[in-house]
Each structure stands twice: as C-alpha cells, then as structure tokens.
Amino acid sequence: MKIEIRPAFDEAVMAAELPVRKAAAKMLQTLQALDLTQLWNHPALNFEKLHGMIEPTTREQLYSLRVTGSARAITCLVKGPTIVLVALHIQHDKAYRK
User: Fold this and answer.
1) Beta strand spans in 1-98 (E)
2) Whole-prediction pTM value?
3) How many domains does the chain contain in total?
4) Using one digit for the tens of pLDDT, what is the confidence trace for 70-95?
5) C-alpha–C-alpha distance, residues 55 and 44, integer Å
6) Phi, psi for residue 70 in degrees, rounded to 5
7) Cys bridge to 95: 24, 47, 86, 89, which one at CB 3.0-4.6 A?
8) Largest Cα–Cα distance of the chain, in whole Å?
C-alpha cells in the first residue's frame, strides 16, 4: 500500500512524546506491508470509518487507525490504493470530534 503523509500528521508525530513517535513509526512499517483487504482486517490497527466525517480538501471519507491505546491517526483513502495520513490525535476521544 502506498502512504502519503500530510504535514499536519508529520508535525503532530514530531511534537509527540517518544512512545507515540515509536508507535507511529511501527504503524507506518505495518501499513507498508499490507494491501487494502489486510488493512480492513488487521486487528491491531483497528481501521474504522468515521461516520459523517469528510476530509475538507479532497472530500474523501475519513477513517481512524490505532497508533497507541490512546492515540489515533485520522486517514483517508485515495485511488491506488493510497492511504493518506491526515492528522494525529494523542487523545482518542478528540479524534472523533468534528
């Protein structure tokens, strides 16, 4: 799977504490080894649709990926398939707010 990283995601990872940075790096390695079907079924990543949430620039559906027990990556999928890492939320509950 191809991966695109938006500046907001990259900045949030770099500003995060070391355990979150390490978990984000591990998540990226995992994503590189998966195809789309494996992504949907991967138990550790917990890839799920964020109902009613759309990426404002591309108008693509947003999804959530588990980075740590509390941190979530907000993503969208584009043709290819390419997963776009849009944002990182350190606190799980804030990831799901519009």
Assistant:
1) 2-5, 48-54, 61-66, 72-78, 82-89
2) 0.88
3) 1
4) 999 999 998 878 999 999 998 755 54
5) 24
6) -115, -20
7) 89
8) 32
